[in-house]
Design a protein that fits this description.
about 200 residues; 3-stranded antiparallel sheet; about 30% helix; 7-stranded mixed sheet; alpha+beta
Length: about 200
């Protein structure tokens, strides 16, 4: 469910006043993660590595209340659920956008992720979840990347998590991940907390 809220009635009142009219309200943080456990689980269970990473992102975000609020077109909205956006390569050599509802239940998330991404790939049709706060993701695995700064458009203020190819070194797998967020939605401290929670989820999955 999505509903308009008065910024003055929220903990983001000051941030809304300061940053809503800013020409560049986005902030990007980059952190290198240890994905060794995630990589091993994906291999052992035959699961999509990207699916597991997306679930971890949703799990970490679901524990931070700022993720359930989003500025859009001069207003502030509250949501009661999350979704993860995945960019899918389709059968025509182009890409489509696919929103996957986040569930705490990994098996349920995996079923939705698999069905929706396969459908987007074969039908060349994008799918969207309108009543969830959507966390964008972008995996550019053609090369290793140290960090990513995304373009900003006032048509899209959703948080974005981006990465390149993971790095295998001896017995360890690492991956720099960039997190871009709108300053009205959260402050740097909230974003840093999210990145810490993301590593904890990866370690405990």
């Amino acid at each position: 469910m999505k509903q308009v809220v008065n910024p003055k009635d929220t903990s983001r009142a000051k941030a809304f006043e300061l940053w809503m009219s800013s020409p560049m309200p986005m902030v990007t943080l980059t952190k290198t993660f240890d994905l060794t456990r995630l990589y091993r689980i994906a291999k052992r269970k035959g699961l999509s590595f990207n699916m597991l990473l997306c679930w971890c992102i949703g799990k970490a975000a679901s524990q931070i209340k700022e993720f359930y609020t989003l500025p859009e077109h001069g207003q502030l909205f509250n949501y009661d659920c999350l979704a993860i956006n995945v960019i899918v390569n389709n059968c025509n050599g182009d890409i489509n956008s696919c929103d996957v509802p986040y569930w705490d239940d990994l098996e349920k998330f995996n079923r939705d992720y698999t069905a929706l991404t396969q459908s987007a790939s074969s039908s060349c049709q994008s799918t969207f979840v309108d009543d969830a706060m959507v966390i964008g993701t972008s995996a550019m695995t053609a090369t290793e990347l140290d960090g990513i700064v995304n373009q900003y458009t006032d048509q899209f203020s959703n948080p974005m998590v981006m990465w390149g190819r993971y790095r295998k070194r001896w017995l360890k797998v690492t991956l720099p991940i960039s997190f871009q967020f709108h300053h009205v939605q959260m402050d740097g401290g909230h974003a840093a907390h999210f990145l810490e929670e993301l590593q904890k989820v990866m370690n405990s999955i």
